[in-house]
Amino acid sequence: xxHSAIERFHLNEGHAALLTLxxxxxxxxxxxxxxxxxxxxxxxxxxxxxTTHTPVPAxxxxxxxxxxxxxxxxxxxxxxxxxxxxxxxxNLTYLALALSHYVNGVxxxxxxxxxxxxxxxxxxxxxxxxxxxxWVSPPFAGLFDRxxxxxxxxxxxxxxxxxxxxxDLWQAHQDAKRTFVEHVNRETNVGFDPDTLTxxxxxxxxxxxxxxxxxxxxxxxxxxxxxxGRLQIVFAGKAHPRDEAGKSLIREIVSLARQLxxxxxxxxxxxxxxxxxALMTAGVDVWLNTPEPPLEASGTSxxxxxxxxxxxxSVLDGWWIExxxxxxxxxAIGKRNxxxxxxxxxxxxxxxxxxxxxxxxxxxxxxxxxxxxxxALNGSFFNTQRMLHExxxxxxxIGPGWAK
Length: 404
Prior knowledge:
The protein is an alpha/beta fold and 404 residues long. It contains 16 helices and 12 strands. Strand 8 (231-236), helix 10 and strand 9 (266-269) form a beta-alpha-beta unit.
């Protein structure tokens, strides 16, 4: 590696951890030795920082040492310390932990969970953020250009969304929603109504995300839609090709949607990718998120929605623990660390029935105020500009004037 000008290597997930083995080899070779020494680890640790991204076991790669040697060739780094080859395996997460001087999770709650998982290491927190210019829809970009000059250069200035008039904010939302509803109807012919409260759920289809939670009790869901205010729900998200449970969830949602029929339109959109994600996060009225705590490390789709004035209705996990001000930026489903599936479903229906649906249909000014605070409090903070600033200040600290 030619990296004389590189002062920090950021291992973003354990997949990058094999880099540390090459750095170890380079440091040993420069010292003119054939064997590794503790000093090699010390020098590599100065160069490396590590971000872990998930508590889900599948996100932490582990390989049998014989397989590792077959692929990588014979290596003797394990002889330096047991931390490199953890529990007799090449564990990429532990490799990154052992050879980094700084470790962080991607939300405050995630850092707490990771600290319990890896108790012998100190795990800090830098909450994820999304790229505002990419995820702000054209109607809202035009709105911000009018009222918040320079918002793309200074995302923190989105806090001034508090001063945007109701009519203008609502019109931008209606423009984004109309574009999305037209897309849904063109693709599916389901007959979505632009004036109906629309819930959106878009993310990878896997069990711990619990996409079908809102469909747990079709009778109650139908009753809310008929007696409190009309609902329509849009789902999207692909399953990993080898995730049979995820594929089964998609089939289950499609089947339940058929049972609801015209009483409550539900659609599962195919080919979920960035463009569709952008249409969804700007075009629904409320963003739904129902992971099983504490498996949602951060989550970012709700951040994208917030930039477009779309509040979240979400389980208190990941970033939403930090972003949720009840009835101000959105609504919580259940309580923190509430892991009982049935109770979460009951809480979801209770919140829809008592807060979200009545506010949308009976207090438009109040709903717009939640939209406004979603932008001003969450959109202005949960973005990559703030995130990168934290990494620069807390982690990278490179170049003249920075303390090494």
